[in-house]
Amino acid sequence: MDDNEGLRSGFVPDEARRFARELGKHKLLQLIQNELMIDSRDSDTSTGSTVTKSALVAILTEICSKQGIPLFGSRSKKTCIEALLRLSGGVSDNDDVSNGGTVTSYALLKILLGLRKQKTV
């Protein structure tokens, strides 16, 4: 199954979590950036599979701009993910970001799928 085929299929949560882990956070971040036509930078990710706060803020800023919503307040990774999910029509849950600020691949997949769904509506 190629990336897009998997992204088009109707996942149940366990399958979606598994597919998100297979794609990886860096790939999912890149797909979100491509969807929004944002240039990716080396500083968007760090060692391992870490997604940086600056990358999330850039995505949030772009979505707010496109939707005519002002960006406000300081943002943590958790509040960025919560806002991104809300703005993309997704649902936030406790597993999206760990207490240490680690963003899950599943949270990124939910954002990507929400953005793609909004494009088709």
Largest sheet: none
Low-confidence stretches: 1-6
Got a strand count?
0
User: Percent of residues in helical segments?
Assistant: 55-70%
| H/E topology pattern | HHHHHH
> What structural class results from the helix and strand content?
mainly alpha
| Proportion of strand residues | under 5%
Quaternary state of the chains? single chain
Mean pLDDT: 86
Number of helices: 6
The end-to-end span amounts to 25 Å
Shape: globular
Overall radius of gyration: 13 Å
The domain count comes to 1
Structure explained in plain terms:
The chain is mainly alpha-helical. The protein has one domain (3-120). Helix content is 59%, strand content 0%. The two termini are 25 Å apart. 28% of the residues are buried. The model is unreliable at 1-6 (pLDDT under 50).
The gist of it:
The chain is an all-alpha fold and 121 residues long. 59% of the residues lie in helices and 0% in strands.
Annotation keywords:
121 residues, mainly alpha, disordered N terminus
Blueprint (SSEs and pairs):
Layout: H1 3-8, H2 13-23, H3 25-36, H4 53-67, H5 77-87, H6 105-120
Helix pairs in contact: 2-6, 3-4, 3-6, 4-5
